[in-house]
Amino acid sequence: MKQVTWLDDRERLDIGAAARTLGLKPWQAGWYHWRRRFCSPAGSQGRRHYWYENDLFKWAASTGLRKLLRQTPLRYWSDAREKAVYGGSKQVADAVVQEWITESGVVAVFWPLGYHKGPLAHEAAALFPGADALVRIASDFGRDGPTVGTAQPGNADPEWQDFAARWGDLSRVLGRPAPYWPLSLRVPHLMKEWEPDSATVTYLPNPDIDVTPLLRMVSALTDDEPAQKVLLRLARVAQCRVTEAAYRDLEFVEEAHERVGKPMELTTMVAARPIEFPEPLEINPSDAQTGWHEILSRSDLLALECVQTVRAWDGGADFHYASTETVRPDRRYGAEWAKRLRPASEPTAYHEYLGPQGEPLVDPVSGAPVVRKSDGTLTVAVPQRLSGENGKLIEVILDEPIWVRTENGVLQVAPQHYYYGINWGYGGSGPGSLALLIHRLLDDITAPAADTIIGAPDGLDELTQLAWPLEQVLTRETLEAARQGRAYRRPTPRSKEDGA
Question: What domain of life does the native source organism fall in (predicted)?
């Protein structure tokens, strides 16, 4: 992304460089200069005249010649004496473009939709060959208002020049306040229906996720059941977030005008404001997991769409099974675990999410959905906590994935938080989370997975950073010794891959 400064670097341009700046051939600039129809030189060095770039652009904007105007940045355009005529709008790629016919020339204003950046500058020039200036209103803000990126159709680079013009330049060239659309209210049909004399429209902002499948499923469920509550809450949380963002955008615009001491009504017409939206009600974690379990256990396509939506939102933070691991049944512990898997009675939404082309299975111990891929590997949904019926922790097995064994001999994939992964053999976040998980499971096998990378005793932190080989079994005695700071047998220095 190009950024330009407001200070002229005072580079001296000879007649050839001046010609290139304005998109002219050197002989054309020389001819204009000889006929005294060119920009007055800033001075001379020896017998050669020189020019400054900003002087050239100011002169070009004053000529009224379209060829020169198409090379001239918007900030040099002349102040409008009459209001620009609105030429309408249309949607292109990931942006809505509004066209303005000003006294000086045609200005195409690009409004990127959502968090897309819209077309590149040279693509915008190709889309609007009749434009004399290209403007892109970004989602962020400068000192005096929304960030204005510009490009000149006569010499459009791929990148927009952000901050090459100020927000006030747009209204100055238009001869009227420029419409402002908060990012989440850049709704194509609203923008297409807008006219300069339109009143500010009040509308629901576009959420960052598609809430349609959530609300369709809500309508198909019994009122107040957990599944309906979690779906409705997610839709409301998403809507509340973008509503707050729209209010913040409008506050930023007001603050920018206060900062530069300019009345907002002179430069800005607020095109859209958000509908007020209430804060969503909280749901306790147990009810949330129950609700999502009901949805994940369904076999219809709409349930899968809901699962895909929430995974894109927060990774499935409220899912009982919130992460996945790949198990190789040709490895020692993978084979032991895989022997107990059973065919699923029917594919569920979670099976489809794990792998729609695989064989749907289930772990009868944990209830976790599993999918066998065409290469024989198994993708398993990993729980965020274990149940207590299998007894206390007796072993942690460092493998891929990491396993735990309980006192009745049952082997299970170690529980994992939806965000914090676990690992060993280095000084990083994975070993930190593993140390905390071990610390919790030693006290309570049903404890939640590590939801941070700190908090374990120093001895466990040290243990998980050691380069244990693959398939290393850490007994409860070893783990307790490490937790209490007592001596235990350490691995021979080598990489963990040596144990494969």
Answer: Bacteria
What's the distance, Cα to Cα, between the start and end of the chain in Å?
Answer: 46
- pLDDT bin (cut points 50, 70, 90) of residue 6 is very low
How far apart CA 357 and CA 379 sit, in angstroms, is 12
CA distance 202 to 198: 12
Q: Residue 10 region, left (φ>0) first, then alpha (ψ -120 to 50), else beta?
A: left
Distance CA 83, CA 100 (A): 10
Whole-number Å distance between alpha carbons of 253 and 269: 11
Give me the architecture of the 2-76 domain, per CATH: Orthogonal Bundle (1.10)
| pLDDT tens column, 81-134 | 999 999 999 999 899 999 999 999 999 999 999 888 888 889 999 999 999 999
- Among residues 75, 76, 118, the alpha carbon closest in space to that of 98 is found at 118
Q: Where in the chain is the domain with CATH 1.10.10?
A: 2-76
Closest C-alpha among 268, 213, 267, 264 to residue 238: 213
If you search the block for the tokens 């409301």, which residue do you land on?
Answer: 236
Find the helix packing angle between 458-465 and 429-443, rounded to 10°: 130
* Statement: residue 9 has pLDDT above 80: no
Residue-wise pLDDT tens digits, 183-207: 999 999 999 999 999 999 999 999 9
